[in-house]
Amino acid sequence: MTSLAESVFLSTSALVGLIQSRFHEGHRRQWEELLYLSQKVESVHGQHPDCPKGLHALLTQVAAELEEHMQKEEQILFPAMLSGGSLFLAGPIACMAEEHDLFGAQLRQMAALTHNFTPPARACATWRALYSSLHHFVQEAEEHVQWENDVLFPRFNMPI
Question: Is residue 121 situated within a structural domain?
Fold first, then answer.
């Protein structure tokens, strides 16, 4: 697996391909499980004081927004970058970076709702699986944003 430090040596084409296969496809694979687990935990343990009330709604919102964001990258931004880029990219890159900031706030909200992904001492297996899977998703999502903000976008001389 390529690290962030190693990604700076990839061609733009290879970097975009890796972002799509590792992060975009990875996030899409994670959503079904996260939505299922969060719905189950909230419905079964809704009365528990540590239940992450509102997590399922937040995940549903984030899933839709993230899919829209990735579609814009895949259909507009990445093809423009792969065709050599232009001054036209300043606007789309700024838009994507702003969405990354909003996404970061949502990731922090997930951590807050879950007590930093720490289930109660006697949490069931489903609750533990939710927090473990969600923690993994958040780590991947933060790395995804870092690869784009710190490696891909600067290639087009667009400070963010």
Answer: yes
